[in-house]
Design goal:
The protein is α+β, with helices and mostly antiparallel strands and 232 residues long. It has one domain. Helix content is 32%, strand content 32%. Strands 2, 3, 4, 5, 6, 7, 8, 9, 10 and 12 form a 10-stranded antiparallel β-sheet that branches. A two-stranded parallel ribbon has the order 1-11. It starts with a helix and ends in an 8-residue tail after the last helix.
Length: 232
């Protein structure tokens, strides 16, 4: 009896895997038209919660890897005392789907070692109407200075989510499924935006920094995110 149940579960899992794989392949190959409307605007404010923002450059290697029509909006915001900086970034995809990629890939490429546990953090946005924004939280670290082999260890708090014209999600798999479904069912694709907020902190400061990041996003999100959920 038990082996029969296991066989049925395995068969179901195989079918689901095959369907998802087929959707992914078709979603990558079917000719579609691109929705011109994005869920964000590619302009970041000059200051957020009294923190001035300074333009951040896009690395050439990033431009080379991502699609030619990928758009970027990036700034580094510094606290009034200059002791803390937040890196706010929006990557907006074009026709090339590789513009939106798993954040783990970039972080590992920059030398960060990822913590195995992820978490969902809820941001309570008040404008233009109250709603909850769920974002994914990653933590990473370097044991010391990568160039000299010494120095103090550092930790990275990394919050991110994805925004389409009429959807937002903290899950990459949800974004990929929706993208493939829209391509197959409707012959269209969204201009997905990948939004991140990152801060480098000393071990032990994570809790206080995360609270500041949430306050920061509560103020920042209404200034650039156009999509607002209707069912909250």
């Amino acid at each position: 009896m038990k082996s029969g149940v296991n066989s049925r579960l395995l068969a179901c899992a195989v079918v689901v895997f095959m369907v998802l794989t087929a959707m992914f392949i078709i979603g990558k190959t079917v000719n579609v038209h691109q929705e011109p409307v994005a869920g964000v605007k590619m302009e970041l404010p000059d200051e957020i919660v009294g923190w001035p923002g300074y333009p951040a450059k896009v690395a050439q290697v990033e431009k080379d890897i991502l699609g030619e029509d990928t758009e970027f909006a990036r700034k580094i915001y510094l606290s009034p005392d200059g002791k803390l900086g937040f890196f706010l970034s929006i990557v907006l995809s074009g026709k090339d789907r590789t513009s939106i990629h798993p954040p783990e890939m970039c972080l590992r490429g920059q030398g960060w070692q990822l913590q195995p546990v992820t978490d969902i953090v809820t941001i309570r946005v008040a404008e233009p109407k109250p709603y909850k924004l769920d974002v994914m939280k990653l933590e990473a670290y370097v044991p010391g200075n990568l160039k000299t082999g010494g120095g103090k260890p550092q930790k990275l708090l990394y919050l991110y989510w994805f925004v389409g014209k009429d959807i937002m999600t903290p899950y990459k798999n949800t974004m990929t499924f929706r993208e493939s479904w829209d391509r197959i069912a409707y012959g269209k694709s969204h201009r997905w935006a990948y939004v991140t907020l990152a801060a480098v902190v000393q071990p032990g400061d994570e809790g206080d920094t995360l609270k500041l990041m949430k306050i920061f996003l509560e103020s920042a999100v209404p200034k650039f995110q156009l999509f607002v959920p209707e069912n909250q």
